[in-house]
Amino acid sequence: MSDISIRITAQEAELDALIAKLDEAMAKRDALLITREVGRVEVEGVVVPPEMLVGGEEVELPGELEDEIAEMESRIVGLDEDIEIQQYKIDLLYQRAYRKQLDYTDQVFAAIEAADGDITAVDWKLLQTQVEVEAVEADDFTITLNDAPVLPTPRGLVFAWPDPDLDIDDLVTHTYITDDGRKVAFQYRIRFTGPGQHLSASERGVRVYAHKRLAAAPSLLDVRTGIHGFRNTE
Q: For residues 48 and 151, what is the distance between their CA atoms, to the nearest angstrom?
């Protein structure tokens, strides 16, 4: 069993609804302590099975920004009639709030599944992909378990394309000619993991970002879309 501390920021109406759900779900467990702060709920001492670990980064926002905090939605799933927790999960839909000339820290929470408390690189990649879809950069969030940063178990890389004879960490330079004749040079490399370390079929594919936006990988890299494991992003 693991103690998971979660801090949630949301609008006042959402906080009240979340408190009611948590109180009902945990009433028979004596494992939940809820304290109110200005615009915040702090959930401490929630005990959940280790295969359903929820992680988040605790941050502080200046008081004057409380009314500008990004909207989030919360839900709890998988509770049976006896309130015995089969799955405990809080999903927070994060929407980045852009502000000018202000020092602040955003926060994002997401739920992941991990067997026996071991978060593998595959689990990490799935979470990272989920977070990045919400336009949150990798450097803007961390995952903590019992206040300790959770780091992924690295996956071994065994092959890189193109130019497989180069060192696997090296990049190659490619030039793309735009419709108006301009040449744009960029560096890239597609690396492959060893057997048994790949993502699930639904998550496999190539995602190429240009200026922090998803680009059309097959057209950009002259990749045939029929190759197994590659997806056309156009």
A: 20
pTM of the model: 0.29
Q: Are 176 and 186 in contact (CB under 8 A)?
A: yes
| pLDDT tens string 194-211 | 777 766 655 555 566 666
Q: Which two tokens stand for residue 1?
A: 């069993």
Give 6's strand partners. Answer: 43
| CB 152, CB 121: distance < 8 Å | yes
Give domain limits for the chain.
Answer: 2-149, 157-221
Residue 120 phi, psi (nearest 5): -85, 170
List of residues 6+ apart from 125 with CB closer than 8 A: 152, 199, 203
DSSP conformation letters of 6-48: EEEE--HHHHHHHHHHHHHHHTTTT--EEEEETTEEEEEEEEE
Interval 5-16: pLDDT, tens: 334 444 445 555
Query: What six digits make up the tokens of 191?
Result: 């690396």
Give the confidence band of 165 by pLDDT, cuts at 50, 70, 90.
very high
